[in-house]
């Protein structure tokens, strides 16, 4: 299979606080978006990468990204699926569009190459099956009511926490996103579109390091631990 990458980076980072600029914030000296680009570039040297950004962030993006000829940028939409759709359309319109796409949150700059390799190996073996990395849940799960009182303990067998990159046949996930854009369902990841169509999605082992930077504390913690490790 040939691979392209779509990186949704057009969110506003509301939970990290106004003005956080998640993708353009530096962690131990390097911007989050550059870390993501580097992690894919050092993995596959010449695959097309589409960065999907917010229209207000064009200047920030230009200032913080080390471009090469196969890094493209396009404008995103109001929610994550709308942004992913723009990236997929762009990728599919390239002269030599790839057979498969890796969709990866800009907010996950620490995905290890082993995770990318595990996802890729699945695509090689079963090209039509979607693949996502995930980690099993280890905490006991509690459901609460609006007063904060527990109403149930939820069995955690078979439950996993989804990560990215999530990989699919480009044309199939593009069609699924085109359709989803017309519905009112809110999708928080791309695999759920496949699931809804009854298409198979396989889970491979994710990695605890592959966190999604969501709150300001996540940035502070990542900055501290990277500086300790000198990278
Ligand atoms: N994303 C996007 N377009 C949107 C919303 C989200 O491209 N309209 C991207 C984000 O930039 C991020 C990824 O989707 O890389 C995962 O989203 P999340 O972590 O929720 O980031 P934000 O939506 O920016 O943050 P928040 O939900 O706190 O506002
Ligand atoms: Mg969000």
Task: Summarize the SSE layout with pairings.
Elements: E1 3-8, E2 26-27, E3 30-31, H1 32-41, E4 49-53, H2 58-64, E5 71-75, H3 80-93, E6 100-103, H4 113-125, E7 130-136, E8 141-144, E9 150-154, E10 160-162, E11 166-169, H5 170-180, H6 191-196, E12 201-205, H7 216-228
Parallel strand pairs: 1-4, 1-6, 4-5, 7-12
Antiparallel strand pairs: 2-3, 6-11, 7-10, 8-9
Bound molecules: cytidine-5'-triphosphate and magnesium ion.
Cytidine-5'-triphosphate (CTP) binds at residues 8-15, 22, 52, 76-80, 83, 105-107, 212, 214.
What does this structure look like?
The chain is an alpha/beta fold. It has a single domain, classed as Spore Coat Polysaccharide Biosynthesis Protein SpsA, Chain A, CATH 3.90.550. The chain contains 7 helices and 12 strands. It has helices at residues 32-41, 58-64, 80-93, 113-125, 170-180, 191-196, 216-228, and strands spanning 3-8, 26-27, 30-31, 49-53, 71-75, 100-103, 130-136, 141-144, 150-154, 160-162, 166-169, 201-205. The chain has a 5-stranded mixed sheet, with helices on both faces. It has a 3-stranded mixed sheet with strand order 10-7-12. Strands 2-3 form a two-stranded antiparallel sheet. A hairpin with a 5-residue loop joins strand 8 and strand 9 (150-154). Helix 3 packs across helix 5 (170-180). The longest helix has 14 residues, at 80-93. It binds cytidine-5'-triphosphate and magnesium ion. Cytidine-5'-triphosphate (CTP) is lined by residues 8-15, 22, 52, 76-80, 83, 105-107, 212, 214.
